Amino acid sequence: MTRTRWVFFDVDQTLCDFATMMRRALSAMLIEIGSRWSELSGRHLPEDLEAIRNRLADAYGDRPVPLVEVRRQMFAEVLRPVGATDTEIDAITEHYLGIRFAEPVIFDDVLPCLTTLHGTHRLGVVTNGNSKLDSLGLDHFFDAEIAAERVGFAKPDPRIYAFAAESVGADPAELIIVGDSYEKDVLAAQRAGWQGIWLGREVSRTGRGRSVTCGRCRRCSPTARCSPTTRPSPRETQHPAPAGTSAGWLGLARERTSGPRQTG
Ligand SMILES: [Mg+2]
Known about the structure:
The chain has two domains: about 5-15 and about 105-260, HAD superfamily/HAD-like (Rossmann fold); about 20-100. About 45% of the residues lie in helices and about 10% in strands. It is built from eleven helices and five strands, in the order βαααααβαβααβαβαα. The protein has helices at about 20-35, 45-60, 65-80, 85-100, 110-120, 135, 150, 160-170, 180-190, 200-205, 245-260; strands spanning about 5-10, 120-125, 145, 175-180, 195-200. Strand 4 (about 175-180), helix 9 (about 180-190) and strand 5 form a beta-alpha-beta unit. The protein is elongated and about 65 Å long. It binds magnesium ion.
């Protein structure tokens, strides 16, 4: 049985509530924009800027998104119609980037989990975003930080997982990733030979979510408790931890401490 040596995490909406951090920063920027260009005062909501950003980012498909440039283009779409200069657009973008991590929002279950795992495993992150661990105050827990923009491949491309495994000198079967995206963090990692654990924060928060069949019993949904009557194959999907709960994270920590439940 292969021992799990490294536990990797996704970052945005797994370790940090980036959505809240982003909207808070965008709200502050809209106030500043409204004070400098009065014709824009009250015209946009943070969600409007987010929609522009997502449209621009979607154009990159599965390729890594140049995140700072996309932010700049987002502000440019709003500011060019009122005559803002490139210098002013650059300054607004820089200010946004500066305040975005001013007050990091770390999920309540993260520090207990990382503290427990830190003593027994090497920890890393694989992220498509640019929320840096030192900006979040979490860098002291981690030994590897793999970012799509620097690697040249973005999740769900399995090549970013292969890159991460090679970077830390581990066999994929020794690696686990925990993340909030079933497709990018779980299925993609499994295709690369890793184990993937889905942290369904959005399902936990809203009670809604995509219908995903549990890989352990093939019947229950990830929001329900699984009581499989048939034995899962070792390569099947890791049964999701209880979504978004400290019990789920610490349960993972305990399982990994006492030995892997499933190995790839
Ligand atoms: Mg995520």
